[in-house]
Specification:
Helices cover 81% and strands 0% of the residues. The radius of gyration is 20 Å and the shape is rod-shaped. The two termini are 40 Å apart.
């Protein structure tokens, strides 16, 4: 009986599960140390080529370091 009552909620549960999976994947990528290091290298290259100012690079590097140090476990 409870199976029949829960049936109308199945699409909503599926959407919520999918949203959780997408969020988890996005967070894994956002806090991935390998990706962060690659971004740090791109910032450093932009500094060397003059594409970004020193202030812009400092701000980006600080943001990346914060992500690296405060990633969820």
């Amino acid at each position: 009986m409870t199976g029949l009552l829960g049936l109308p909620l199945a699409p909503l549960k599926g959407v919520l599960w999918l949203a959780e999976q997408i969020q988890q994947n996005a967070e894994e990528q956002y806090y991935d140390p390998v990706r962060i290091r690659a971004q740090m290298e791109r910032v450093d290259e932009a500094r060397r080529t003059g594409e970004l100012s020193e202030e812009e690079c400092d701000e980006l590097e600080n943001d990346l370091l914060q992500r690296l140090m405060h990633r969820p476990q």
